[in-house]
Amino acid sequence: SGAAPSAADFAVLFGVVAGAGYNQVSFLGLLAPAAGLLSALQASSSLRNNFNLLFGTALTAGVPPVASRGTLFDVVGDAAFNQASFLVVLPNAAGLLSALQADLALRTNFNLAFGTAIAAVGAPGAADRKKLFDLAGDPAFNLANFVAALPAANALLAALQADVTARNNFNAIFGTGISGAAPSAADFAVLFGVVA
Q: What angle do CA 110, 102, 98 make, to 5 degrees?
C-alpha cells in the first residue's frame, strides 16, 4: 500500500537489496515473470511437486520460503525462459529424474552416457538439470521408449568409444562426432535411433 511498510516488510526489502548481485532494473523486470511462474506452480500441486523435485525447493501453495525465491528468479531470468514451454516440459523432466533416481542401473547408464552425476536422491545440479530438460523438451521424447533404449544405446556408445575404427566408420556413416567424451544430445539421439 502507500503507507509506511511494517518492520517485517522493511526487513524483506532489505533482504532483497542486500544481495551482492542486486540490480533494481533487472529485479523489477523479473518480478512479474517470477510471480507468474509462482502462481502457476501454486495452482497445481503436481507442477509444484515436479519443480520442487528438480530444483530442490520447498514451494507450497503459500508464500515461498526465502531460499526458494531466488530459484524462481533464476529460472525466469534465463533469456530463453518461456513459461508455457517450461510448464509443458517440467513434468517430463521430473518423470525422467524420478525414473533415474529409482533405478541404479538406469541411473548409471544415464550418468555414463551423458556425463552427469544424477544421484539417487536430491535435486540435480544446474548442468545435470539442463540435460534433463533438454532431453525431455524434445517433442519426440517418450519416457518409456527412452528408458527401454538407454542400456542398448549406452552399450553401443561404449563399444564405439573403445574401437576407433568402428567409431570413425559410425561417425562417417551417421554424421556424428562421437569421441571418447560424453556425446552431444544430437549424437546420442542418433545412437537411440540406431538401437530403438
A: 75
**For residue 7, how many other CB atoms are within 10 A of its CB?**
7
C-beta atoms surrounding 142 within 10 Å: 12
Output the pTM of the full model. Answer: 0.86
CB 75 within 8 A of CB 37: yes
Kindly state the DSSP code that residue 70 receives in the 8-state scheme: H
The three cell numbers locating residue 47: 507442477
Q: Which residues contact 177 (CB under 8 A, 6 or more apart)?
A: 171, 183, 184, 187
Contact 149, 139 (CB under 8 A): no
pLDDT tens digits, one per residue of 95-131:
999 999 999 999 999 998 888 999 999 999 999 999 9
DSSP 3-state of 79: coil
